[in-house]
Design a protein that fits this description.
It is a single chain. Helices cover 50% and strands 13% of the residues. Helix 6 packs antiparallel against helix 7 and helix 12 runs parallel beside helix 13. Strand 8, helix 12 and strand 9 form a beta-alpha-beta unit. The chain is of the alpha/beta class and 294 residues long.
């Protein structure tokens, strides 16, 4: 696995794409606010002034536009992006409306001619020969096309697929994802999950050394499945590089309370936090640095 060190603070994409775990109305308001990509860029520039250089980003339909704007902005030249793949809703909605092949072709339209040729050739061989590994590798390459000109910090597998693989016993999917990302993109491969204890148990059994895992972890027990106690035990146990998300419990916790709690866990290497205003950025980032000194 790549030894690339992750940013301590990684901005979450949820506010930019209208996701709010506590209020759909508030999520809709954020979606309208950030429909103008320049407002997202303004938030990134504010955070850049505070020393933040990382952004978690799903392959949302608007991700390509945002990726282009990040590339164009000199003030964001040192930033690294942490893709979360795939954006499940895009495939479900797109497959229902236009068919899965058309969805894939739309994504391929963003690639260069050489990239298209390589992807289609490799993927075609895989599909014709029923080679599952090549088919999945093609999907990953297509998903990461929007970020091809940006610096990557790590690539995370969406919790929907991680947990599906866990539930069905498809350990080979997890191995394939890790191997493809580290070999072809040269960055760590992370696994997002909604069942942290089960994932840790499975990866221990598979012999993964210091896996990179992202899951909800906070003082309030918000989104910590199957229980806050079991998740806390899984984070406390050495042998993992842990990325904590939903650290403010959807806005329920104040930054000081949230990060004084997380400071107890040496395995927490990075914190993902959604920020939509400059005053919130200052309060949150200062609290993280005050409590989470390395």
């Amino acid at each position: 696995m790549s030894d690339l060190q992750l940013e301590r603070i990684i901005l979450g994409h949820n506010p930019f794409f209208g996701v709010d775990h506590l209020s759909q109305e508030r999520g809709n308001e954020k979606a309208k606010k950030f429909d103008d990509t320049s407002r997202i860029i303004d938030v990134l520039l504010d955070c850049s002034e505070l020393g933040v250089r990382g952004l978690m980003m799903s392959t949302h339909p608007r991700a390509s536009t945002l990726a282009v704007e990040i590339q164009r902005k000199p003030g964001l030249s040192g930033w690294r992006v942490y893709p979360l793949v795939p954006y499940i809703n895009k495939y479900i909605r797109g497959a229902n409306e236009r068919g899965l092949v058309n969805v894939a072709m739309e994504l391929l339209s963003q690639a260069s001619l050489g990239q298209k040729f390589r992807m289609v050739l490799q993927g075609g061989r895989g599909l014709l020969g029923k080679d599952f590994r090549q088919a999945v590798s093609l999907l990953l390459d297509v998903e990461l096309v929007p970020f091809r000109h940006l610096q990557l910090g790590a690539v995370f597998l969406h919790d929907t697929l991680t947990d599906l693989a866990l539930g069905l016993g498809l350990d080979s999917v997890l191995d394939l994802f890790r191997d493809h990302v580290t070999r072809h993109f040269g960055v760590p491969a992370g696994l997002a999950t909604k069942n942290l204890p089960l994932l840790r148990e499975r990866l221990d059994r598979l012999g993964w050394a210091d896996p990179l895992i992202m899951a909800s972890f906070n003082r309030a027990g918000f989104y910590m499945n199957p229980s806050a106690e079991l998740c806390t035990e899984a984070v406390r146990r050495p042998g993992v590089r842990f990325v904590a998300m939903n650290t403010l419990a959807g806005g329920y916790l104040k930054p000081d309370a949230a990060y004084s709690f997380l400071a107890q866990f040496p395995t927490v290497c990075s914190i993902v936090v959604g920020i939509s205003r400059k005053d919130h950025a200052v309060e949150t980032i200062e609290a993280i640095r005050r409590h989470m000194r390395q």
